[in-house]
UniProtKB/TrEMBL annotation:
GO terms for molecular function: 3 iron, 4 sulfur cluster binding; 4 iron, 4 sulfur cluster binding; metal ion binding. Residues 9-38 form the 4Fe-4S ferredoxin-type domain. It comes from the Bacteria. Its cofactor is [4Fe-4S] cluster; [3Fe-4S] cluster. This is Ferredoxin. Keywords: 3Fe-4S, 4Fe-4S, Electron transport, Iron, Iron-sulfur, Metal-binding, Repeat, Transport. The keyword rRNA processing does not apply. Ferredoxins are iron-sulfur proteins that transfer electrons in a wide variety of metabolic reactions. SUPFAM superfamilies: 4Fe-4S ferredoxins (SSF54862). The lineage of its organism: Bacteria, Pseudomonadati, Pseudomonadota, Betaproteobacteria, Burkholderiales. It comes from Collimonas arenae. InterPro entries: 4Fe4S_Fe-S-bd, 4Fe4S_Fe_S_CS, Fd_C.
Amino acid sequence: MDCFRQGPNFLVIVPDDCIDCSMCVPECPVGAIYNEIDLPDEQRHFVEINARLAAHPEWQPITRSQAPLPEHEQWRDVANKLEFLKLA
């Protein structure tokens, strides 16, 4: 799928490009992707953040499969990750 964009330390899905196939949900190595109807209430704020960042001009499309970042496991259970979000 070409609906993913990559920032410095965060991935987003372009809402208008997503076809809602749900194939990315089980592929995420840390369980960070949800179907919007299954999104926990405490993560609903990410819908707006995702849409805003997906339009960021410096965030590039991901057009081929990539290995997870080496440190992805250590971030799996970290709460309040927004304070670490880099925009550019």
